[in-house]
Amino acid sequence: MSAAAHADVVTAAGVTVWLRAFAAEVATRRDELTALDAAIGDADHGVNMDRGMQAVAAKLAGPADGPAQDVPLGPLFKTAGMTLVSTVGGAAGPLYGTLFLEMGKAAADRTTLTAAEWAGVVSAGVAGVQMRGKAEPDDKTMVDALLPAAEALRAAAGSGASLAEALSAAADAAEAGMRATTPLVARKGRASYLGERSAGHQDPGATSSWLLLETAVRTLADPT
Amino acid sequence: MKKLINRPEDVVRDELAGIALAHAGRLVVHTDPHWIARADAPVAGKVALVSGGGSGHEPLHGGFVGPGMLDAACPGEVFTSPTPDQMLAATQAVDGGAGSLHIVKNYTGDVMNFEMAADLARDEGLSLEQVVIDDDVAVKDSLYTAGRRGVGATLLAEKICGAAAEEGRPLAGVAGLCRKVNETSRSMGVALTSCTTPMAGRPTFGLGDDEMEVGVGIHGEPGRERRPVTSAREVVETLAEAVVDDLPYRSGDGVLAFVNGMGGTPLMELYIVYGELHHFLEERGITIARTLVGSYVTSLDMAGCSITLLRLDDELTRLWDAPVDTPGLRWGA
Questions:
Q1: Burial of residue A162, with CB atoms counted within 10 A of its CB: 0-12 exposed, 13-18 middle, 19 or more buried
Q2: Which of B34, B61, B102, B219 is catalytic?
Q3: What confidence tens digit (pLDDT) does each residue in B80-97 have?
């Protein structure tokens, strides 16, 4: 196992590197996300997420390797959440904004989080997304990637996995959830207007959520 | 893509700069965040009307800011809901001490952003109500969809509630009136072409030269069904029948008939549609008491139209006829 090479707690440095990596990934895949949205939505998901995450990356000023270890995580997530709320618009702004705002509330003034604590913080964020968007599993939304990821995090952390292993399990679950949105008929958001015609397309929100979890694997436990 | 723009990412900023210059003295355009207010806001003692939505639907909403209609409008990016900080700033600035009414089109993003704005505004001690407009009969209203979309009735609600607010009606009364307009309005649209957003640079959806999208939404989102293009008469029958049967509008009703262009359809065609609608309603004993024909709730360069009916009573008719003085709608002023 290579877990020993990783930090086994989430820190502000890890979160900063993670969010910057997600911003870079969204920028790279901007057109891909927008194309998925054009098929069943209004063709702006990549553009909006890119605008929001560039703003978040700009707000996370400081040295390239992130802030010092003793920075509380709550305010960091609150800054990310408020920035997304005020720059993204659409449904993705309130939803991703609420994800990070609720994660910030759960993390509060903690400066480090173990895998089990991280699972709790992510679960609080996902519950916030469900509260804001009122989506249930299989509605063909970002919840279909986020909810299995939170469950996988809790299960992995509960069985004593390292942070790196738990993050991997979460990303794998998010990917499976994202792929499983393809045959679904949308019941929330603009895609729901299409009814049966929304089947056969992967959900763009579930795709960006998978990207968020996937970038965590290579950054959050290993910020250098 | 051929558009009269500078850079795709600057269209909203550049548009607002143009609006500020074109309507200086009547409108004040704020940046960071973006919102448009009537020049004399806040009007003391009057309920403030605030609306907003994605850009690309002009003159909705910014073109309806002024005496007799909206106090402020919050433009989002193209086809993207505005953000809560915009609605908060606008509401704080135009509140004249009698509270504010937010008029929200039923789209997932708009509803969520306005809900977050309401939470923030109430935290600031502001008094406000929100009414969600959902008049589009093309969408099945069920637990399994985001519900009906807000389209043409939005303009009617903004005009009628604006007149009621000018008369000094209190917040609960203006909000109740807004719900009444929504409950007695129905709409449906058809697209002959897609639209092209500046950032995408390509048509949002593909539509053959001989096809039309029946039940289209105002962002080019597909509707009920795709079928071959037919005559104006047949198109009106399809739209008007769905609209009339849904409320339903009955023989003896007097209505406001609103034929709306989607942005890329000439007024000539809208009047042909209006003529067909007139005959259609006449045959069913429904009297058109007021009319509005033109492109008011648009979808960029989309070709097509929508039909909205509002069942009128004396109160609604009087408020519709009241003076309005905005860039997009102006009479009696």
A1: buried
A2: B219
A3: 899 999 999 999 999 999
For B161, phi and psi rounded to 5 degrees? -70, -35
Find, in chain A, the residue whose alpha carbon is nearest to that of B199: A47
User: Which one is predicted more confidently, B220 or B76?
Assistant: B76
Domain ranges of chain A: 3-217
* B24 contacts: CB under 8 Å, gap ≥ 6: none
Distance CA B65, CA A194 (A): 33
Model confidence at A213: pLDDT above 80: yes
Return mean pLDDT, chain B: 95
What's the mean pLDDT in A14-26?
Answer: 96
**Looking at residue A18, what is its pLDDT?**
96
> Angle of helix A45-59 relative to helix A30-40, nearest 10 degrees?
140
Task: Give φ, ψ of A53 to 5 degrees.
Answer: -75, -30
Q: What is the value of ipTM here, to two decimals?
A: 0.77
A3-217: CATH number: 1.25.40.340
What residue ranges do the domains of chain B occupy? 8-184, 185-319
- Taking the Cβ of residue B152 and every Cβ of chain A, the question of whether any pair is shorter than 8 Å is answered with no
Is B278 among the catalytic positions?
A: no
The verdict on B54 touching A (C-beta cutoff 8 Å) is: yes
In CATH, what number does B185-319 get? 3.30.1180.20
For A222, B16, B43, B66, B178, the CA distances from B155, given in Å and listed in that order, are 54, 20, 21, 13, 11
| Predicted pLDDT of residue A2 | 42
Question: Where would I find the beta strands (DSSP E) of chain B?
Answer: 27-30, 35-38, 48-55, 72-78, 100-105, 128-133, 185-191, 211-214, 225-228, 254-261, 287-294, 304-311, 324-325, 330-331
Q: Which CATH architecture has domain B8-184?
A: 3-Layer(aba) Sandwich (3.40)
